[in-house]
Every structure is written in C-alpha cells, then in structure tokens.
Amino acid sequence: MKILITGSNGLLGQKLVYKLRNQTGVSLIATARGDNRLLQKEGYVYDEMDITNEKQVHEVLAKHKPDAVIHTAAMTNVDACETDKDGAVAMNTSAVKYIVEALEELQQKNSDYKPQLVHLSTDFIFDGTHGPLDENEKPNPLSFYAETKLDAEKIVQSSKLHWAIARTVLVYGIVDNMSRSNIVLWAKQNLEQGKKINVVDDQFRTPTLAEDLADGCILLAKKKAQGIYNISGKDFLSILQLVHLVADYYGLDKSLINPSKSADIKQPAKRPPITGFIIDKAIKDLSYNPHSFVEGIKLMDEQVKKQRM
Predict the structure, then answer these.
(1) H or E segment at 70?
(2) CATH number, residue 270
C-alpha cells in the first residue's frame, strides 16, 4: 500500500512517518514545505510539497499516485488564523480543494484507481456548549480557524473520493529536536522553574497523544474507512485537571497553579468551552485503543529522556 503524508515535518506527520516507514507492505512518501526536518531519513521517500501551491500538489500526487493520502498539514495556530485570514484560508481550505481535485483528476483518468483521503479536523468546529460529543454533533464554529476547518470538511464530504475525516482534540507529544512545546511541556517547565501559572478551569477536552492520533489515521487508511471518526484520548478533563495530573506525575508544586477563567485570558480567537469526544465508533469500527492521559505523560517523559541521552 502506497501512503502519502502531508505535513510530515509537523508533530502528527513525524509520528506517522516513524510508525509507517518500516512497516511491511507499506511504501511511504513523506511531503512537507521546504526541507525534510526529520532526524530519521531511511525507510521512506521525501518529496517537497507546499500544499498552498496548486501546481505542485497536482504534480506530486500525479507522480506518486498514492493509495491513501493522510492530510495533516494545516495552519493550527488559532490566534494567528484570526489575524492572517488569507493565510488560514490558503492552508486550511484551498489546499484541501487542491488535494481533492488532484486525486479526483487521477481517478477520472484511471477507473481502477480508488485513492483514500484521510483528512484531519478539529473539535474547534463546535461551539462548546456541552461535551463530550459524538460524530453526529452539529458544528457551530466560534473562530476563523474553525470556519476554515469546517469549510475543508465540506469539500472532502462533497468529493467523489473515498474519504474519512479524523476529528481530534488538543494533541500533545514530542517532536524531533524538541522544537515545539505543548500543554504538558509548558506546565512542567513553568512549575519546575517555580513560576506561578494561570490555568483555566472552565475548558474541558479529551487530550490526545500524538501517537494515538497517528494510530487512528493509519487504521482509517488501511481499513479504507468511510465517514467521520472521532480520534482522541479517552479521558474527559478540564485544562486545570490536566495540569494537576502533570504536576502529580512529576511531583511538582500544585500551589503554583492558579485556577482562572477563559474570560480573563485575552486571546484574539474564541475557544469552545466544552468539547471532548466520545470515541466509541473508532473503538468499535477500527479497534482504536488510545492511552490514558497519565500513560501519555509517561510515554512523553521516556521520549524526552531518550532525546537527551
């Protein structure tokens, strides 16, 4: 099976490459904008592909004719999307249109070619009045980021492709070179330095380990699943509970954690207060089996130690 990944330099992209590169029966193509930033360069082909460049998208997909495309590349900085709306549309919506059209074109030319598109989406397409949510929940985006992601879902759903949408929540994990932070590392680093941190107690999520999300995407591709799937962690937690669990795991001082309200944090983009996902469909259809949040922290901790050796 030939699988092409977009956004292979990103957190999810890296996890997918490392999980798939030595799998028997998988021929892997990793694509991203610019150079390949992964430390491990064996076991796959790297091709540069800027998803906002329509011509390049058509050329790379025509060259490789993948059996499955796992589309992870996106502009995910929610506040940046609010201030750079053109950039958000280019990355999150137009790019999806280019990928869909390129695959449909290849499909038209060859009736035997039936590619699978696995598209990544987000809990932020919901307004956050309640949770956790199942796949039938009606979207109501609060931010421009969420609007672009919902528009992309509609493009995928109205395509002539065999498609699956993986919706996810608050992804955390470690990338090569430790170049990016996430809520776990942010909390750990600040508490270790004895800094007081304000943490919201009125936002609820099902935090997702990047490895689990990668497993979910691979299962969707390999099983040629069709439709929308919630792929997240299984623990429904407030952000405050989540940070307390990080402090407990590392034996850090919880008195430094100051509970606060979303309204007190000035951010350009609105966040949905309550999301989190019910993942029963993915468990039943795909045998998806995510880690608990504490197991996820432990796995990350082991990876950080290994990187420092």
Answers:
(1) strand 68-71
(2) 3.40.50.720
Q: Tell me the average pLDDT across 267-290.
A: 97
What total of structural domains would you count in the chain? 1
Give the chain's end-to-end CA distance (angstroms, integer): 35
Residue 244's contacts (CB-CB under 8 Å, 6 or more residues apart) are 254, 257
User: Does the model's pTM come out above 0.90?
Assistant: yes
Whether 39 contacts 177, CB under 8 Å: yes
Q: Which DSSP category does 290 fall into?
A: P
Contact 183, 241 (CB under 8 A): no
Distance CA 90, CA 97 (A): 10
What DSSP state is assigned to residue 83?
H
Q: What percent of the chain has pLDDT over 90?
A: 95
Query: How far is residue 87's CA from residue 106's CA, in Å, rounded to a whole number?
Result: 27
- How far apart CA 152 and CA 226 sit, in angstroms, is 16
pLDDT digits (tens, 9 = 90+) for 234-244: 999 999 999 99
Domain residues for 69?
2-308
Closest CA to 127 of 116, 138, 111, 115: 138
Report which residue type is found at 189: Q
What's the mean pLDDT in 112-137?
98
Taking the C-alpha atoms of residue 101 and residue 159, their distance in angstroms, rounded to an integer, is: 8
Instruction: Give 233's contacts (C-beta < 8 A, 6+ positions apart).
Output: 169, 206, 207, 208, 209, 212, 290, 291, 292, 293, 296
Tokens of 145: 């980021």
